[in-house]
Amino acid sequence: MKKSVLIICLTCFFSVTSSFCTVFASESSDLRLIEPAMDMDVVVMQGKQSKTVDAELNSTFDFGIIPVLLIGNGVFSASISKTNTTGELVYIYFYGSAIPRSDLSVAVSPVLVKVKSMVSDGWGFGFVVHGILLSPEDPPYEYKVKLDF
Fold it and tell me: Which of the four CATH numbers 3.90.226.10, 2.60.120.260, 2.60.120.380, 3.40.718.10 does domain 2-148 have?
């Protein structure tokens, strides 16, 4: 539990820091850059399925949440695919009723960032949180989140 809270706090800290640097370093005084927004998709999956979610974030403050209901047994994995830019610090985090309960991956694009968990109780529920911590480029940020079970 402490590890999850620490990870969420660090994610928020880096997002806030990056957004403030973007706003104050730019010539524009557009305060929409620091207004956080959330991209949300809901996914229900059975065994041996794949789904892809397109994500578009308008600032580094923004993040995406995908509540996932998993029906069956198997290995669940979620990955971010960002190949159209370089130098962005992207993250993906999973928390749910699977084993391990949480998993975090952070990397610099272009990259494939992946988290995995095992479902063995016949069903599982969790949240996939994804976003961009730092970026040298202007928004919007576009990438794909692929879910496999």
Answer: 2.60.120.380
